[in-house]
Design brief:
Layout: E1 2-11, E2 16-21, E3 28-31, E4 47-55, E5 58-66, H1 108-122, H2 128-144
Helix pairs in contact: 1-2
């Protein structure tokens, strides 16, 4: 049965934790092998949906997926890049940019960071897995069109 709940605690290193079901009842065991998103995203208070099963030692969650909520794990512009943009790299427009797009390949890491930021800010219902899938498709397209360096 698909169930909603909140992560009570999750130890990324040990790979397990517990979920409090929204409907109440016993805490539900969660294991890293049952996570559908990156394990670092499962923080205390994260809303999740999961299939409730009875394990040998009590209730156990499987196919655990994050339910969207604003995240403190936002990628910030340039977070994956050590140096400032160089001349002739594309400038990606935001709501406040008035600059035009400049020609020339951009560093792939910077492009991924900009793309991730844009997806998280403008498509806030995407899951982490969906963001990764869309980002992978767009990055491959950008490489094939030589919009970014391979």
């Amino acid at each position: 049965m698909l169930t909603l709940g909140k992560v009570l605690r999750f130890d990324e290193v040990k790979g397990y934790g517990f979920i409090a079901p929204k409907e109440g009842g016993d805490d539900v065991f969660m294991h890293a092998n049952d996570l559908l998103d990156e394990k670092f995203l499962y923080q205390e208070g994260s809303e999740v949906e999961f299939f409730l099963q009875m394990g040998e030692k009590g209730p156990k969650a499987s196919e655990i997926r994050l339910v969207y909520q604003p995240s403190s794990h936002r990628v910030t512009r340039g977070a994956e890049v050590d140096s400032a943009p160089t001349e002739r790299q594309p400038v990606f427009l935001s709501d406040t940019d008035d600059d035009a797009f400049e020609a020339g390949p951009q560093d792939a890491a910077r492009f991924r960071a900009d793309l991730t930021e844009a997806l998280l800010e403008r498509a806030d219902t995407l899951t982490a897995a969906q963001v990764r899938e869309v980002r992978g498709i767009v990055v491959e397209l950008a490489k094939s069109r030589r919009w970014i360096a391979s």
